Amino acid sequence: GSPDASNVPIPPYAGVQYARLGTTPLEYTVIGRMPVGMRKVAVKNSGTTLLSPYWPVRQTLGSLGLQDLPGWSSAASAAEADTVVLSAGGSATTYFHDGSNWRRVGLGSSNANDTVVAAGTSVLINKRGNAPGFTTYQHAAPYSLQ
User: Fold this and answer.
1) What is the pTM of this model?
2) φ, ψ of residue 6 in degrees (nearest 5)
């Protein structure tokens, strides 16, 4: 069957994607504490990993540091690079790292280092190849509570 999942907690490191046929607005209530310290989460060495931005503030794609993950494939084109898909507000955009800068796929592959990754954005990491296992992604809080 389809058990009621109304009270299933969603961890702050998890990304959530959904499709909806209805046209009425949905309301979400987020409760919890502001995370502090270092974020540590497993990212697959190959294949797809779905994450949230985690921190409840706007960040930039360049500040996430995903390109610094061990084994990250940067290249001159998205066809040869690992990619990141940012989904928010009903649209999804794909980016790749060229070794120096983040680039948006298409539209001339303009510099996308300053692309805003807002709280609530889904971050889909697509790692090329077939390497087994996981790598730990670490990211310090982009704010101070002091």
Assistant:
1) 0.79
2) -60, -30
